[in-house]
Amino acid sequence: MLDISHLTKTYHTKSGEIYALSDINLHVSRGEFLAIIGTSGSGKSTLMNILGCLDRPDTGRYLLDGHDVLSLPARHLAEIRNRHIGFIFQGFNLLDKMSALENVELPLAFAGISKRERREVATSALCRVGLSERLRHKPSELSGGQQQRVAIARAITQKPSVILADEPTGNLDRESGAQILEILSGLHASGATIVLITHDPDVAKKADRIVEISDGKIKST
Ligand SMILES: Nc1ncnc2c1ncn2[C@@H]1O[C@H](COP(=O)(O)OP(=O)(O)OP(=O)(O)O)[C@@H](O)[C@H]1O
Ligand SMILES: [Mg+2]
Q1: Range(s) of the domain holding residue 85
Q2: Burial 22-56 (b: 16+ CB within 10 A, else e)
Q3: What are the residues whose beta carbon lies below 5 Å from ligand 2 (ion)?
């Protein structure tokens, strides 16, 4: 499903070069649930941004569901991203002025889906994550765990082939975090490919396989 080889990424800063990723090789099979662990600054988010086609590496090859994504122009890359990838972030990334329902509907509107269908699909996604009673609530009226569930609902409406989650439980208490992991496990059980980034070894244990990244390099596969 995801196949990257010899990936490198260097940030050029005023105080010098930062080798965020060096010679990363990683293969994630369809339907796999992979956790990537590593300490702060090890390169996890950099890798996730590249996996999610939000950023490009300096060198290397990346096949996403057979597409050689690095050879594609930006516009085409955005299309591939919208079609294949669902994102879940540590900070939820919801729009404050919009209700849960509107937040989940938004990407569907961008995808050109009719108003009626948007409402149906978004409502059913929110029910799936246990928020049928909170459709009209704004993010500020929801708990952190509930906000993260809205973000998951938003990520799954377009049935992405891959779900990328960067520290999805990082801002949550243990119980809400466990609920989020349960939802991710459920999505995995229904066939989704999941890449979960975390610094918490207990969270990583939920995955089929753990890969550790240290100083921009993969330590164990
Ligand atoms: N835009 C940027 N410009 C310059 N350096 C960056 C940039 N983004 C990240 N870095 C550097 O690249 C390295 C990897 O950063 P990255 O954000 O991938 O780490 P991380 O593993 O996600 O850390 P954390 O667990 O704290 O989120 C770090 O040394 C960081 O300072
Ligand atoms: Mg990070």
Answers
A1: 2-95+160-220
A2: bebebebeeebbbbbbbeeebbbbbbbbbbbbeee
A3: 44-45
